[in-house]
Amino acid sequence: MVEKKFTSIIKEVITDGKSQVKPLTKVIQSKVRLYNPILIAGFPGAGMVGAISTSYVIEKLHMHQIACVESDYIVPGVIYVGGKLRHPFRLYANKEGTVCVLVCESPIMIQGIHSVLDTVMKWALNAKVTEVIVLDGIAIPGMFEGKREPMILSSDGQEADKANLLHDDVYDNNKHSFFNTAFIGGTAGGLLSSCLSNGMACKALLIAATNGIPDPEGGAILIESVSKVVENESLKIDTRELREQGAELKRRMEQIMQSVQEQQQQGRGQDQGNTSVGEGAIMYG
Question: How far apart are alpha carbons 206 and 188 in whole angstroms?
Answer without folding.
Answer: 11
